[in-house]
Amino acid sequence: YTVGSSGCDYTSIQAVFDNEDLEPRDVVEIRADTVGGEKTYIELIAIGSDDGGDSSGYVTIKGRDGDTINIISGQIYDNSWTDLGDGKYSRSETNRVWILLEDRNILQIASDSNLTDGRYYWDVDEHALYYKPTSGVPSDHEIIASYSCLASTPGGININDVAYLRFKNLNFEKSSGGIVNYTSNGTSHIVIEDCNFSQVIIPTYISASTNGVVHGHITVSSCNFTHVSRAICCGTNSSDNTKYLTYTNNYIYKSGYVDESTLWKDKTNVDVDKEGIGLYRPIHAIVVGNTIVGGGYSGGIVLNTGGSPTENCTDIKITRNKIYNLEGPGIY
Prior knowledge:
Helix content: under 10%
Strand content: 35-45%
Radius of gyration: 20 Å
Oligomer: single chain
Number of helices: 2
Structural class: mainly beta
Largest sheet: 12 strands, parallel
């Protein structure tokens, strides 16, 4: 199945999952308008539980070889704003807005709806978004909301309860999440390779167990993470383990920072662990050949063995990783 402009099966990524029942060894190829070109897709993407593969083969979601495929996980707003005066506007919004983009720039969050110290504010009680344009009125700008990636409305590609997926040659940028699932359920056998994540709060977060049933089998390989908060994480609750994790040959730069000097929590008020690679009560984990540079207040490679997991943490290989210029411990 192809995604792109003229001559492709679909013009949006989500349309593939809405209209097709994908099977093992199916390929979803996302294309630029011309061979070797660049294209940005701005979408809310959720992959259905029936669109994964099985032990006979993976479903692959990839950018066409030679193309540069960018994905912003977000919703483009129309011009349905209420003018509050003094250059401020509001609209109804039930979903928590982690990031607001104006003309593809990440805006500064304000401390309240007065917007005296920022450009946007989401009010959890009113379910309202407040916004103050940098110039003119809202219709003068492209405004994109990227929602919390730990909620039912995806702030990243939502792979909740999907198994046997492979992602390749994709660039995720300026979003709350990259490839994530917000509840544990049946997510397993996920491969992410040769992908880039730039200015994404949580690029990869996969919750890998439910009520003692461990799914796992997560591979992240040869990916670049720049100005993210927590780069790679397969999590679970305190009474379960994660299993069969392979994180190899990734490059992680300044985790915790949205740019060279500003923390994500100061820019967006979203405060998650500032770590390169997080291992939570792991069994059978391979962390080899990764480079982690700068940032990382919580640690470069964080090994969390706390809680009361059903099994002891064993068979963990952490070797040949290059870790330097961190604000926190290298391996913790």
